[in-house]
């Protein structure tokens, strides 16, 4: 079977699109991946043919990206088109019927709320934009032969329009997160892109000020990007509160380096803010990364995160807008080492038994086997 994976938004080597699904499918099928990038390319990487189309710098020109992805996809003699967002779903719906092929829609997010909260839209029209976007996405989803989602609320939503809907979590590879016997530091880590508005960077830093008054060894670490304006705020805030020496920031790092950083820390933090639906209902990849690394989690008390954390007893849920509550949870885990270690062990066990990509890969391949190709 030949599979053509298309995206109009994600970069070519996205964790789920390339490193998880494309590479897993390439073990059994012939796979080509088409994605936008700053430069055009056509090369084989880890058994996957990667074709990039040049994307315009202005996001208002996104329809040009969609057209270029359509043209590149039309040239492929494949059996299945596998798309990853409403833009590529629109493209692939045409490709499905023009070329008479199968279509899989892979839903990573609640896209309508993401689209509506784009800065290009005035606040007063965002509610309407979200409703229209959501309705159009559901209409197009009816044409998919299978829908893959990343969490329960999306499964419930899309099953109403397409019974062939299944959850595949974005889980880590067990072989990637090998536990190391190291003496962990009094370190709290926040993995990924961290900003003020959506991910609570300011709350994270405010909790550091509180924790540092009771723990002289404490270190906070952000492994990932901080937007320039937010980084300026962070630098000024840390200096003003005399805790600059307690904070470390790596900038972007290759995902392969993440386990090494996590092995240094005692606690992993997720402080998604309740700014829109997708944030409130999301299950960030870092949750499973922390669990795989065997460290307890302190996370926003939102429904889908809550379900996993409570089911596995791998951490503490907090109000993500309250730095005192975050600090109290951190100090509790640093003081009660046996509790913290037990939560870390629980998270690791849950990943070993259920939340690992090895399990998700089997389910992905089963989905493809179920297609009448």
Describe this structure in words.
The chain is α/β, with parallel strands linked by helices. The chain has two domains: 2-171 and 356-370, Rossmann fold; 187-353, Rossmann fold. The chain has 15 helices and 14 strands. It has an eight-stranded mixed β-sheet with strand order 3-4-2-1-5-6-7-8. It has a six-stranded parallel β-sheet with strand order 11-10-9-12-13-14, sandwiched between helices. β5, α3 and β6 (102-107) form a beta-alpha-beta unit. It is globular and about 65 Å long.
| Tally of individual domains | 2
Mean pLDDT: 95
Helix-and-strand structural type: alpha/beta
Q: Tally the beta strands.
A: 14
CATH H-level name of the largest domain... which superfamily?
A: Glycogen Phosphorylase B
Strand order of the largest sheet: 3-4-2-1-5-6-7-8
Low-confidence stretches: none
Shape: globular
Pattern of helices and strands: EHEEEHEHEHHEHEEHEHEHEHHEHEHHH
Topology:
Elements: E1 2-6, H1 15-25, E2 30-37, E3 41-45, E4 48-54, H2 62-74, E5 80-83, H3 86-99, E6 102-107, H4 111-116, H5 126-141, E7 146-149, H6 152-159, E8 165-167, E9 187-191, H7 201-212, E10 219-223, H8 228-240, E11 247-249, H9 258-262, E12 267-270, H10 277-281, H11 285-292, E13 297-300, H12 303-312, E14 315-318, H13 323-335, H14 337-353, H15 357-370
Parallel strand pairs: 1-2, 1-5, 2-4, 5-6, 6-7, 7-8, 9-10, 9-12, 10-11, 12-13, 13-14
Antiparallel strand pairs: 3-4
Helix pairs in contact: 1-15, 2-3, 7-8, 7-13, 11-14
Could you give a quick summary of the protein structure above?
Helix content is 44%, strand content 18%. The chain is α/β, with parallel strands linked by helices and 373 residues long. The protein is globular and about 65 Å long.
């Amino acid at each position: 079977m030949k599979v053509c994976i298309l995206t109009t938004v994600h970069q070519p080597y996205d964790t789920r699109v390339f490193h998880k699904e494309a590479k897993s499918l390439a073990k059994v099928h012939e796979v080509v991946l088409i994605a936008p990038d700053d430069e055009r390319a056509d090369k084989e990487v880890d058994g996957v043919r990667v074709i990039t189309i040049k994307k315009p710098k202005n996001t208002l020109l996104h329809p040009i990206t969609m057209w270029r992805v359509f043209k590149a996809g039309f040239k492929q003699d494949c059996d299945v088109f596998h798309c990853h967002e409403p833009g590529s779903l629109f493209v692939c719906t045409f490709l499905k019927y023009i070329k008479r092929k199968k279509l899989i829609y892979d839903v990573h997010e609640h896209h309508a709320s993401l689209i509506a909260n784009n800065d290009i839209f005035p606040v007063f029209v965002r509610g309407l934009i979200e409703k229209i976007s959501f309705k159009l996405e559901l209409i197009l989803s009816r044409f998919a032969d299978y829908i893959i989602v990343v969490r329960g609320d999306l499964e419930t939503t899309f099953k109403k329009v397409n019974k062939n809907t299944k959850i595949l979590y974005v889980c880590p590879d067990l072989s990637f997160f090998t536990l190391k016997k190291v003496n962990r530091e009094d370190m709290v880590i926040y993995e990924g892109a961290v900003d003020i508005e959506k991910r609570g960077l300011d709350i994270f830093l405010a909790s550091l000020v509180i924790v540092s008054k009771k723990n002289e060894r404490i270190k906070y670490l952000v492994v990932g990007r901080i937007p320039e304006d937010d980084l300026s705020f962070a630098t000024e805030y840390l200096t003003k509160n005399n805790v600059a020496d307690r904070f470390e920031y790596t900038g972007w790092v290759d995902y392969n380096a993440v386990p090494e950083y996590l092995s240094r820390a005692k606690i992993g933090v997720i402080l998604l803010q309740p700014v829109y639906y997708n944030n409130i209902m999301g299950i960030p990849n870092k949750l499973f990364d922390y669990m795989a690394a065997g460290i307890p989690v302190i996370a926003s008390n939102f429904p889908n995160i809550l379900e996993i954390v409570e089911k596995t007893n791998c951490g503490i849920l907090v109000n993500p807008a309250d730095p005192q509550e975050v600090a109290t949870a951190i100090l509790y885990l640093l003081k009660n080492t046996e509790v913290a270690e037990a939560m870390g062990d629980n998270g690791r066990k849950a990943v070993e038994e259920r939340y690992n990509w090895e399990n998700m890969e089997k389910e992905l391949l089963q989905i493809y086997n179920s297609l009448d190709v």
